[in-house]
Write the structure tokens for this entry.
Amino acid sequence: MSFDKNQKLEDIISEINRILEPVEKKEMEKVARPDYPNLFLVGCPRCGSTMFTQWIASLQMFSYPSNFLSRFYKTPYIGALIYSMVTKPEYQYRDEFCDINSEIKFSSSIGKTKGFKAPHDYWYFWREFMDFPDVPFSEKEFKQQFDFESFQKELSLIQRAFGQPFLCKGKFVNCYLKSMSEDVTGAIYLHMHRNSIATIRSLLKAREKWTGSQENWFSWKPREFEIIKDLDKYYQVAGQIYFIEKEILSKRKYMGDAYMSFSYEELCENPESVYLKIAKKVKEFNSSFVIPNYSGAKEFQISNPISEEDMYIKEAFNHYETEYGKLEY
């Protein structure tokens, strides 16, 4: 499978956004504060975050960035209005859009989903507010460069269009959670983590699938990239996972009540429990939020296959916990 971009698609999406952006900017000038908090899912690559967003999408509890909405990265409000018009039952007329598949499938390829309504990573949207560096820089530089005002206005517009709290992946800000907690109002940070050995194992496989070799770098870089960049693949990936998790855990004190964590394993074993925890957290921010009865799956199968490489993976991860301290959730 090729993960190369479709340049013709990129060009037409860019043109649509260019045409619509002035209208979006005018709406941003008159936007009010959102009624609900926005939820940002943070954590390591391969922690199960795509499966989580698919589960959230299937419950219809929150709004989220779909594959369709991802096309409108400069104009999410307009995109959200169009999406609502063609998908919400109250806007239907004689089944004109009945061929849009409402089923959210729990399958993906390295985070890429299929389907009009399926959740999307939405990275283009995040890049609208800052040119993120390849290796994270300081919180001070982030505060100076990130466009907090426009970011919050766009999120308010998205909520206006959907009438629900908005949830999206926020891994771009894994290393900037102190600044986010200080400068973004009404946000909740959901920290999803997974058994470290399983995460490392999965990321090694993703390297091979995406780049053609487990030796090639893939996905988010921690601040400590210089420490690990010249090491072998096991120590590289173990360090990648370890340092990203350590960074997030070190910022819990700044997020306070806006921080909530759960594991991939917990989600698989008891999704209803995770659902109720998240709903309760939203209700703490807005007491009028109505918690719908849980209607999703009772459990999911945990993906944690044993690998011949596990001995090397465990040795590498133990090195970091011995050298820099154990990760405490």
